[in-house]
Amino acid sequence: MIVRTKGIEMTGTTRRSLLGGMAVLGASAAIPVAAQAAHVDETIPLWPSAPPGAPKSLPERKVTERSSDPLFHDRWITGIAKPSLSVRRPAYPNGAAMLLVPGGGYGFLAWDNEGEEQARWLTARGVTCFILSYRLPGEGWANRSLVPLQDAQRAIRLIRARADEFEVDPKRVAVLGFSAGGHLAGSLATRFAETVYTPTDEADRQSARPDLAGLIYPVVSLVESYTHEGSRDSLLGPGSGEDQRRHGSVETRVTADTPPIFLVHASDDGTVPIANSLALYQAMLAAKCPGELHAFDKGGHGFGVRLPKDVPASAWPGLLYAYGTERGVFRA
Q: Which residues lie below 8 Å from residue 31, measured CB to CB, with a gap of 6+?
């Protein structure tokens, strides 16, 4: 089924069951490790010095390779002591920028499935990509519930402050988040003006409001019965109160100033129920906020761009790009 705001359609299987062997939509197909080196540009730190709320003992970076195929990566990353942006530049930039926010329940980053593989199909269309390596709230940072949002706000501001260097238009900066990364992208879209850290330099004069937010099978509510408890507890800590949960719920923060939001979810998602996206879409309608929801019958959770072409949900990258073009962020 399809619905638009002036929109619905969707599908679902698990991250594990989709790993390895699934053909992907056109330019979004997985690329062997040997070919990936050409796509690695630069990594820039988010903060000029120590990030806000640094613990005495910084977490130690750990990369877990989950793929048994030596030609393909499926890395999970923890221990982010130095949050950063990994820049992936297209051969022919069209001026659009995309901040990519991998998921992982706020306990790890699904770096390849929801970062590198997304950058490949977007750079093929001329979009300059920035994969966000954000701090995980349970790794000792002060004000744990604000740590990911601090990094996301800072990332958007840094992209805009260095727009000329990256060959992007500061008025065409989008964010794309997956699962818990979708919660972070949604929080950025609804809490971009909230002061969550002390400004550090001139970059922090820039707006943190994305011009478009894409949320793919996102965690949205932290207070309702359909929340993803693992993401909620990793972000807020165990034993959080209802006020804190409501404050961190994306659907409660939508206003007329919220940028356009594009939602994708599968009704058979057994990890993060589709009710999350439905609640956010209803909040957007109530606030008269532009947006689009694609609710698919099948797809499960964590599918990224790894669905076979005969599964309708595999069409979501093209749908996102079409919507972003309609909103003036991308170029046809």
A: 39, 120
Sign of CA dihedral 161, 165, 170, 173: negative
β-bridge partners, 128: 97
SS3 of residue 227 by DSSP: coil
Within a 13 Å sphere around the CA of 311, how many CA atoms are in the beta-carbon half?
A: 25
pTM for this model (two decimals): 0.89
What is the number of other CB atoms lying within 10 angstroms of the CB of residue 330? 23
Q: Where are the domains of the chain?
A: 2-31+61-326
DSSP 8-state secondary structure symbol assigned to residue 197: S
Domain 2-31+61-326: top CATH class: alpha beta
61: its two tokens: 């970076």
Tokens of 277: 């996206």
Query: Please, which residues have CB within 8 angstroms of residue 307's CB and are 6 or more apart in sequence?
Result: 11, 18, 22, 24, 25, 299, 313, 314
258-294 per-position pLDDT tens digit: 999 999 999 999 999 999 999 999 999 999 999 999 9
